[in-house]
Amino acid sequence: MSKYYPAQININNKKCVVVGGGNVAWRKVCSLKNAGAKVVVVSPVFCPEMEREEGIELVKQKYDEYYLNGAVIVIASTDDEKVNEKVYHDAVRKGMLVNVVDKPDYCSFIVPSSIVRGDLCITISTGGSSPAFARNIRLHLEKQFGNEYSEFTELLSEMRRKVLGEISDEKIRRGILQRIAEWDMFDFFKEKGASETRNKMLNIISGKHICK
User: Any coiled-coil ranges, and where (predicted)?
Assistant: First the structure.
């Protein structure tokens, strides 16, 4: 089985094409849309959820490779294997990333199971060997990573912008960013809340505390 290079792709405002109009295709559409993509869906028929989904372009036609033009990602999720295979070969020939749902041999990328807490995204993959096991791991980890991780990473993002904007010395900057991201800071956040943690981080940034 192929080894995959782990990466997160910026698809904001980029065209992504989903071929297929069923419930599985709809879930793929939602994921792409949530990442900011301009989603185009090509299918002769659409499930009710797809038809109600706002902010996407529905092309009620049989698949033609013409619809792939300009796409950065292509996902095939039809109930016709010949169509799915054609989508794969067309996309590969055009140099596009393509995923045929539940067909690892027809994928240049796979979508890992993921946990999202604000800007924090934890992905789990078995390289396509057992998506079910990856899902079970995700369900296990979801119990350990609550919404406090979302709030803490949002605070870290705020502090990072401040550090990058105010501190020119790279070594000092790196030390501060490392210090405020330590586990003891997260423990303090869970105990004292965002306001007190922000003050503590600001004290570190201003030099009132020694950075490790």
Answer: none
